[in-house]
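Page header: ASSEMBLY MODEL / two components / 414 residues total.
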Amino acid sequence: MHRIITISREFGSGGRELGKRLAEALGIAYFDKEIIKAVAEHSGLAEQYVESISEKSVSFYYPISYNTTFAGIQPLVGEHTDVIAKQNEIIREMAEKSDAVFIGRAADIVLEDYKPLRIFVYADMDSKVARCLARESDAEDYTPKEMEKQIKKIDKGRANFREMITGNKFGSKDDYDLMINTSGLDIAKLIPAVVAYADCYFDAQKK
Amino acid sequence: MHRIITISREFGSGGRELGKRLAEALGIAYFDKEIIKAVAEHSGLAEQYVESISEKSVSFYYPISYNTTFAGIQPLVGEHTDVIAKQNEIIREMAEKSDAVFIGRAADIVLEDYKPLRIFVYADMDSKVARCLARESDAEDYTPKEMEKQIKKIDKGRANFREMITGNKFGSKDDYDLMINTSGLDIAKLIPAVVAYADCYFDAQKK
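Prediction written out in full:
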């Protein structure tokens, strides 16, 4: 069975960079936007649209209170759940091919049979705002206050998506093997520690 | 300023072993029972008594609902708060002497001016029960079910102590820099990863 690492992360915590560098260090595949792309191709939907719904809960779009079982909401929000189902199928196909790092999309739940190394990356708000502002393109021009609002909004969507699937609070320790606070840290310098943890984790799986 | 590492942990998760091995690997001081010993010496109280109260909340002993400010409860539970005050003083003295790893006793809060590396160690219940049963002395003879009850009771005390001080839930990610799930892992093999993280953390502090 392939070694699978999943990264859940707060927006702006550097989780994506950590995942990418970790995959490079381990010499394994890395899936992030690739998932969106594949879902869009298979479903005929626009990438942007797929991305907009692939990490948010149904209730984020349909604020009326539904029963949270998929069966109950299927007729109302068919396209949404179709996209999630396709996304899960593609994630499973990718995991079957090789060792890989997956960013977001609840891949830790989708691939739980692999006993993935489940990493959660987070940071304090000041660090997240600073990180986001530093990588901001010229086109956007947020104040720190606006950026904070943006971060909270995105994480609210992730939290809703997560809670819908697991029933647990986003960032709840029992859902993860390793939780890394990146506040003030250089992500590149963190990689040796995460590689060492991954070695230990996958060695234990062999037994 | 000295490099301080604090370990908070769920009972049976191997946090103490991790702290001890980490201190050895880094060649720095390690304080655990030593804190109890010093408090007992300074206060004239029995070590066992000091230990019994040093990580539990006031409300754990006095189940009536008090105002949670120390000032408010002082007259009623003088000895308890005296012991905590003495413990905090001793923790501060120890941190002033050298780099060190501290186990429990909310040292991360007491020493927050040091910007300690705050580690939380946890595990799933099955792993904790297995770890506790494996290290059990012949004198005690718990069934797994009894051991689980014991673990929950001890962690309830720690959680109460923690919540009294921080207002946060025990094991809440925002209180920590690194959270390690030790389920199924060999603590000794985890040390290189934690050492690498510590290097990264303290390097960032220098800037």
